[in-house]
Amino acid sequence: MPCLLDKLTLRADFEAVMAAGVVARTSHFALHQQPQTETSRIGAVVPKRWARKAVTRNLIKRQIYALVREPWTSDLPWADRVIRLQKTFDNKLFISASSEKLRLAIRSELHQLMGQVVAP
Q1: What are the CA-CA distances from residue 113 to residues 27, 37, 55, 93, 105 (Å)?
Q2: Which residues contact 34 (CB under 8 A, 6 or more apart)?
Q3: Per the domain annotation, does 84 fall within a domain?
Q4: Are 106 and 63 in contact (CB under 8 A)?
Q5: pLDDT of 77 over the 50 cut
Q6: Which H or E element spans position 29?
Q7: Enclosing domain of residue 76
Q8: Mean pLDDT over all residues of the chain?
């Protein structure tokens, strides 16, 4: 089974995966997926609109790429995936732009998101 270490880099690849549609959602993230036969790649879209500070955007991207390096992701079917932030995290709950509390909340929600696509 694949390991999702390859990153999507080309705009056309991102657009193709996002056009394939959303396969899973959580309160802050959407997962777009396009089945593949030979490779499995991951992309992260974290708009400035939903994460104003660069520190927060980078934290979210690091969490996405760290998540797909976990051993259980090898059970996922081969596909190109894009994880997109679609809602801001509440500044009243997460005062610091890169706090441990925010990191854990992001990681937990990403686990929930990826758990929705595990192959039967």
Answers
A1: 9, 22, 22, 21, 12
A2: 16, 17, 20, 79, 80, 81
A3: yes
A4: yes
A5: yes
A6: strand 29-35
A7: 6-115
A8: 87
The total domain count for the chain is 1
Residue 79 inside a domain? The answer is: yes
Q: How many Å separate Cα 33 from the centre of its chain?
A: 11
4 or 52, which is more confident:
52
Closest alpha carbon to 82 in 100, 64, 55, 62: 64
Looking at residue 109, its amino acid is: E
DSSP state of 85: E
What's the CA gap between 28 and 4, in Å, rounded?
22
For 3-30, how does the pLDDT look when each residue is reduced to its tens digit (9 = 90+)?
Answer: 556 899 999 999 999 999 999 999 999 9
Residue 59: which of 44, 70, 42, 41 has the closest Cα? Answer: 44
CATH number, domain containing residue 109: 3.30.230.10
Tell me, yes or no, whether 120 lies in a domain: no
